[in-house]
Specification:
It is globular, with a radius of gyration of 16 Å. The chain has a four-stranded parallel β-sheet with strand order 4-3-5-6. A two-stranded antiparallel ribbon has the order 1-2. It is built from six helices and six strands; from the N terminus they run βββαβααβααβα. The two termini are about 30 Å apart. α1 links the parallel β3 and β4. The protein has a single domain, classed as Response regulator (Rossmann fold, 3-Layer(aba) Sandwich). With about 230 residues, the protein is α/β, with parallel strands linked by helices.
């Protein structure tokens, strides 16, 4: 989600087959993998006991906006108006609380372009405000270049993950694609998707925020550990 500007779907974006955003499917997750085939890989632990996820952090091919930025994190859902902008603002606050905002770049996007240029869902904005967070910016569609530019590309559910993997051009890039609930200590093995609240109400949005908050807390801890001297 880009602040103050819209982004129309471009070539190399995640494909969409419907004219209106469908509800996200929640399917069983794939088997957890450990990625270790690169000398530049850095492991990121997760909130799920006994499991680890990893991300490849490329030192030579990173397009940085600040000399101090060392980790770039992108959150991705279906339309970039509910779940991924929520994860973006929640994670940004947690990184700020740890004094690392200048070292971590955070953004969000959607696999579909239905809402490109739109503000976040009003229900998400209201829930964010109730939690002391400000949700601004405009929806955009994820592109293949995002997978090259970001160190961690974090999907909200398995359907989003599959769409992102379809954009990946090699195994190193595929290893950057993770599920947010891999960091959720309360996520069951068969339920690793963040429920889409789009067709729900205030309760569903509050539940979504709670899940995102738990996962982002652990994710922020892992990033802070990576950045510690």
């Amino acid at each position: 989600m880009r602040c103050g500007r819209s982004s129309a779907p471009a070539s190399g974006t995640a494909s969409a087959t419907a004219s209106a955003p469908p509800r996200c499917a929640h399917v069983a997750p794939p088997e957890t993998e450990r990625c270790s085939n690169s000398s530049t890989s850095r492991r990121f632990g997760t909130g799920r006991q006994g499991a680890e996820r990893s991300a490849i952090l490329h030192e030579d091919d990173r397009r940085l906006r600040s000399d101090r930025v060392t980790v770039r994190v992108l959150f991705v859902c279906l339309g970039n108006i509910c779940r991924s902008p929520t994860a973006e603002v929640v994670f940004r606050q947690k990184i700020a609380d740890r004094g690392l905002l200048t070292e971590v770049e955070i953004d969000s996007a959607g696999t579909g372009g239905w809402h490109a240029g739109n503000a976040p869902d009003r229900r998400a904005i209201v829930e964010a405000e109730q939690r002391g967070l400000s949700m601004t910016g405009r929806a955009r569609q994820v592109t293949a270049s995002d997978l090259r530019d970001f160190d961690l590309v974090i999907a909200m559910d398995e359907s989003n993950r599959r769409d992102l993997l379809a954009l990946a051009t090699d195994d190193e890039i595929r290893e950057r694609v993770q599920l947010l609930r891999d960091w959720d200590p309360e996520a069951a093995g068969h339920d690793r998707g963040v429920p889409d609240p789009y067709y729900g109400g205030a309760r569903e949005f509050a539940e979504m925020f709670d899940i995102v908050d738990r996962a982002c807390e652990r994710l922020a801890d892992d990033v802070a550990t990576r950045l510690s001297p």
